[in-house]
Amino acid sequence: MHQSYGLPEDIEDGDGLREKCGVFGIYGHPDAAAITALGLHALQHRGQEAAGIVAFDGKRFHSERRMGLVGDNFSRREVIERLPGNSAIGHTRYSTTGETILRNVQPLFAELNAGGFAIAHNGNLTNGLTIRRRLVREGAMMQSTTDTEVMLHLVARSSRNRFIDRFVDALREIEGAYAFVGLTNKKLVGARDPLGIRPLVLGELDGCPILASETCALDIIGAKYIRDIENGEVVIFDEDGVQSHKPFPPQRVRPCIFEYIYFARPDSVVGGRSVYDIRKAFGAQLARESAPDADVIVPVPDSGVPAAIGFAQEANIPYELGIIRNHYVGRTFIEPTQQIRELGVRLKHSANRAVVNGKRIVLLDDSLVRGTTSVKIVRMMRDAGAREVHFRVASPPITHPDYYGIDTPERDKLLAAQHDVEGMRQFIGADSLAFISVDGIYKAMGENGRNPLHPQFTDHCFTGEYPTPLTDREARDSQPRQLSLLAEAS
Amino acid sequence: MHQSYGLPEDIEDGDGLREKCGVFGIYGHPDAAAITALGLHALQHRGQEAAGIVAFDGKRFHSERRMGLVGDNFSRREVIERLPGNSAIGHTRYSTTGETILRNVQPLFAELNAGGFAIAHNGNLTNGLTIRRRLVREGAMMQSTTDTEVMLHLVARSSRNRFIDRFVDALREIEGAYAFVGLTNKKLVGARDPLGIRPLVLGELDGCPILASETCALDIIGAKYIRDIENGEVVIFDEDGVQSHKPFPPQRVRPCIFEYIYFARPDSVVGGRSVYDIRKAFGAQLARESAPDADVIVPVPDSGVPAAIGFAQEANIPYELGIIRNHYVGRTFIEPTQQIRELGVRLKHSANRAVVNGKRIVLLDDSLVRGTTSVKIVRMMRDAGAREVHFRVASPPITHPDYYGIDTPERDKLLAAQHDVEGMRQFIGADSLAFISVDGIYKAMGENGRNPLHPQFTDHCFTGEYPTPLTDREARDSQPRQLSLLAEAS
Amino acid sequence: MHQSYGLPEDIEDGDGLREKCGVFGIYGHPDAAAITALGLHALQHRGQEAAGIVAFDGKRFHSERRMGLVGDNFSRREVIERLPGNSAIGHTRYSTTGETILRNVQPLFAELNAGGFAIAHNGNLTNGLTIRRRLVREGAMMQSTTDTEVMLHLVARSSRNRFIDRFVDALREIEGAYAFVGLTNKKLVGARDPLGIRPLVLGELDGCPILASETCALDIIGAKYIRDIENGEVVIFDEDGVQSHKPFPPQRVRPCIFEYIYFARPDSVVGGRSVYDIRKAFGAQLARESAPDADVIVPVPDSGVPAAIGFAQEANIPYELGIIRNHYVGRTFIEPTQQIRELGVRLKHSANRAVVNGKRIVLLDDSLVRGTTSVKIVRMMRDAGAREVHFRVASPPITHPDYYGIDTPERDKLLAAQHDVEGMRQFIGADSLAFISVDGIYKAMGENGRNPLHPQFTDHCFTGEYPTPLTDREARDSQPRQLSLLAEAS
Amino acid sequence: MHQSYGLPEDIEDGDGLREKCGVFGIYGHPDAAAITALGLHALQHRGQEAAGIVAFDGKRFHSERRMGLVGDNFSRREVIERLPGNSAIGHTRYSTTGETILRNVQPLFAELNAGGFAIAHNGNLTNGLTIRRRLVREGAMMQSTTDTEVMLHLVARSSRNRFIDRFVDALREIEGAYAFVGLTNKKLVGARDPLGIRPLVLGELDGCPILASETCALDIIGAKYIRDIENGEVVIFDEDGVQSHKPFPPQRVRPCIFEYIYFARPDSVVGGRSVYDIRKAFGAQLARESAPDADVIVPVPDSGVPAAIGFAQEANIPYELGIIRNHYVGRTFIEPTQQIRELGVRLKHSANRAVVNGKRIVLLDDSLVRGTTSVKIVRMMRDAGAREVHFRVASPPITHPDYYGIDTPERDKLLAAQHDVEGMRQFIGADSLAFISVDGIYKAMGENGRNPLHPQFTDHCFTGEYPTPLTDREARDSQPRQLSLLAEAS
Description:
Chains A, B, C, D: In the C-terminal section; belongs to the purine/pyrimidine phosphoribosyltransferase family. The structure is a homotetramer. Chain A is of the alpha+beta class.
């Protein structure tokens, strides 16, 4: 085990701690770990770099944390047998920057005075680094470089007695987006941030409560969907049943629009809406806004497929597989380095000449971030003989980075932050380019449009309106660099 | 390295040696191994259990053979650097039965008197075991349990001088289906069986010849397609250019129909026909033959997609993703054990309730083999609220096993060999079931129908008409078991 | 990575945290990590289960911790290259009980407010568990189950400003035996417990200071021995040179007698005395006390060799290799389980019949603990034809367990705690059995005998006089078990 | 698995195929594999690079071949359970040149027409490469680069019917030194070359016959020694008992003298003589021939120990451990590269200053090959304060390389082939240097001296008189290099 200690540059840059992740937890089921493994497998699209499960057997906690896919690491019986007990929580992880190292893989665990406590987190704390610095100053020792770990320390240091009070004490100190699942020697706990930016649902299997990032993790095991955990809600399951706490002042829910655009699996129901239907609606709305004359609709696989079907039905143009995906590689957004990302396209996609040759095609994609992939796909279509290539994007231009758990590049690498639509069209080399409008997105979601006073969704990537303070970010910008800090960290 | 020696039962059963594979070779290119790795990656759908590359650097042969995916094993620079040279051949492998062991992974290599010789094989020899027994009786020593190895020994034992003569000597002894690529210290060689059952194409990159199972392996590296290797043709590339030999009496080509139905990648062009277009045509023909009243067409992903698009367009019923596939597992047909195969469906597919609930759906699949997967998919659709489930299959009923390189179960496990269509419908639990007709298949291929005297395709799985003798199979049936042989083998 | 959390039974039993270890540190040398690896290799006899090195490159700390031998893990260039910097500390580890897990392998590291701090420890804290419990109660989070970790937390929580003050604050809270080497981003620090139970020497190479458990670690790299760190001394090396602190009230040094009997390498000089000479003197004294009539002196290899040479010279009986050791296994005392320990003898030793057959032999061993190995060796000698077998032990009967870093069984498994000498003789099956007397040990060390008021050595294993309080042990005996605690720990 | 094909230079040089190895076999015992593993462990000193076991369960052969030590690879129950059956053979391997690759690890196995055949070999064939070339010319395919494999092919190609006749046919073609153990589905076979150069003994455990390179492999499992296999004898064990064949014209036995000097374990009895006693006798004879005035006798550990004890007793000078060996590294002669060999000394040995300082010492070593190690040891003694260093060697000067299974450098790297004794003394830097005389060796063995007409031992390393033709060597010297062959091999 090699480790380098010292805050990596990217943590200082405010980039280092963000994760795009999936969480799962179950209480009271004899096959807790096996079910958690299946649940994480269904959430695999939320993070492919690492996964972990912590189970509690009534006496001891057991933990398995591994780099790689759930199916590769948690499908064998002997691994599950090392995770005995009838309560378990799990996590799949995709870390944005630098190396993912094993000690950062969740769930994290700590021995508190009252007993062990494991926690898994989807989201990102916008004041995590600020709290981390304060804790270290007070003598705390960090075992990871994740923002999640501050929760462990905050709970450990609370002066309250009951676990729930300590947990709420900790929640009151943090800002940002989170869906937590936690496990003590008595309880399963779940919490969603005050705006409900990241999703968390409650299900039930054989009478046992389940928490999961998406409903697809319930479906895989045949569990029943009960309800979404509400924004700002803390739920606790133990022998005595369930308790719900609302420790924050009430706010309107404001979920992240990106769950609908790209994150969630199409068969999930998020916030009561079918993701598949919403994506088809984005495509249909886009067709209404900017359908060109064309012979064929070609989705950029696989994330562009539902929008392309919706576009094709609305525009009454045939839907065809003009791009074939090689299933033996992961999806574009996931590759860890720019270099591999560029190689990726050739390895992942190929043109289906029989569909494309001599045709006017509409390429449908879910989003446009850096644009580097799009450049190659447009060129691949032209190489395969496409007569015209019209590029349509089922989300508005991304002009601002995310700080709530989505891996986005900094502004200067966002294509839409650097160019207007015509500039972007030239960059990707298409004959035309159009995005769905911001209001179009809201309409497709069933709203009349965006409510500028109380936006119904977290949409700062398109609008620049961040829903919470960005404490770490501001600290970084306002303070001189503390070089002495560079030589530390665990 | 553990090895068990002794002919495994399954070899005796005539089941053991068959493989579904992809082959690739390139001559004279400075990046021979890297290009071969990319070519194999494009052929990954033809075999995911193991892969290997042999390169020749002008002095020595270098070999890397690994269990697992091409991308997992051959994507790192250090592996490619261990394969220097400007000629290389490669192989991806899927073995039907028992364990795949490293010594069976191809290309195989032998030191002949005239120099080294490496060979990779897609197909299956129907007299491989018979020849193997004869060779062992004569003092030959086997390093693998593959049928391919007999080619090495036959070439080694030929009394001829020139390599081409020795190679043709060997070809004259074997029967069955094959596409070979071979590499000596001077030549790249390719050969296709007299009926052209298995495919092999010739391409060119930077002036260097390439042999590959499918055109998609040319596309990934931007190579130009030149022509198909003809049935019964042997091609040899060396410093002096290319030579073509036709050592067998001329026969009409009779390619395997399964390449179009299931094997080949949709963006490949096989025998001059776009696989995607043919699959859509299968779907359209099936719609003409048996379209039910329905609300929505749902493909069984991913192999049923093109036929479903063709069916939907012909029948004018909306095409929708009613089943979502989890991309983090391989495809159904590939799983090694029945047990995993059954688990597989839950891990791989999930119902998209938003599409299915309350609807009359048409499920489109490319083939029906054992039917075990179909049972679960139909049930999954009903669980998701489907009002009616109509199952349509874009190939005729499979009544006979294959012996030419396709993994099919023995007759007693083929659903269509045990039941009529109504029996099958009851088995899978659909409201209706229909297959495309055998003549329908030929029509979709552009023929007027099947020519019973000279069938245009190898189609014994549907008709029972095997195109070559089945020597090993007959030997097994006629001879008493030689138990003394069980304790041997390398 | 699998981890089980929850205080293992053996920690509760007071058995779990003890280690027999070697430490090494160097300050200011360009090859710090490579030299540390060589030093640890020379200290390999002090612990073979795991090893670790932490280096500081002026900006970041780098850590490599591995299970297994130093030579297997730290001999390759790429490992050393992952440990850049000109200061480093290292540790070899042998843990007594249960599994050794990676997170327990030292050096341990923590991020303090003032910067990183790594520490390695040889010895055992007799109040480690008591402090650990207090820290957890106050909100500290433990990353390991070692007693060493409490030092990290005590340093982190000190209210003092200067590192040396925080370090001394921490030392004041702990009891027991220790030789520490620590590394901050500015300093190398060493400390020896107030009685000097565990050894620590200061050396110099190319003008750079070195700390090591034994002088053999200086010899391997050609470093010069400067002096022993004194009991109760804290030394600090930084850019400004060296500082020595004596934070404790002065006491007479009282080193562990076991370093001379068994622990230290024979070529080391401990406390100014050659270990080889002392062991020969033990043998000679034993010969004076109890030499039998015999034909040949046979050492139990390898730890009995020097005493046997001394015995043979004093008694004027030929020294012969009557037992041959298989060098491809580790030494008896080291095997992790009783089961392997029993198997071990057959695998490790064999009788040299040519020496033994028909002879009256004296078997010379360094110590007698459980006696299980001795039983087998005596029997092996008789099987090889020995006429008489006289067993001589170059240390007194071990009647009490150690709590200062030596792995000894609990009292009920110590042969000498259960039997008198005649009972032990019967148990091992020898014709006669004798031990060196306690006073004999002191005489061989150059003393007039044991000073009962101020014993010159730590010798509780023979006398029951423990030199410090046994806080954890007493807490265990006096308190009810806290079952709630069982479910905790990191 | 990476493999490079093409005869490596060193095979062409006649250096590549030699091995120093140990063999073991047992017939009819329910724990055949476990006993073989223990036997190989006792033979570990004969080869540490790799080991293998083949077992036969009455129906199938099972093989495990691994790089590394027996104890590391064959001590776990699951490995032994993969080797069921009541007959087994095993091999430990040390290959002289280049990489040891898994396909060269023995036992080798082949499927013959009459059934499987496994073989393990200690020794070296002096016409192995010549036969290999002929076999390849005839169409044979090689799976390894060992000389042993030609035995498999020769047996396979014999036209005789009975196994024993085929085996003897093969023996008649080979020249050189060998001790073979072989296993068929019915028999255990052993064979020793016509001069008995390499040793092979017969033992018995629970009524089951055992073959082993040395008696120490019998002792470890408590087996009874029966007799040595005679030179030129072939023994076969099967259900009907034992048969002994003598297929060669009778010759006087002429065992390799190096087994006594260095190879065999001191507790083994080779050719009826205790190896320990013989080594002591070498030391005593050397003392009679050239004892200097000195204060202390210091063995070069561990191989010089018995000769040093004999020398010390004869010369009446105290025997002391002036050099301490670090047990956590292998022995000098074993290291694979010159570079590591040089580093090795510092890692392996250290001076015991307490013994050496100010003394006139006699260093006793078993042999002097390149002299590079001796240079460092002499220097180490002087650095530790030795007043005089007298070097004594318990074997005569090695002037000629071996071709019978011992790893020796070519002549130009043998110190004694380049220098006279005074030159060697200067090279190693000793105050005096002396070797035992060739006649002294014979006297210590109980002979009156060397019989020049019929030397009683194989001693070409000292005398240049090779006992068999060196066919491969002569072929290499007389023939032009066949470059075409360089590009071949399996």
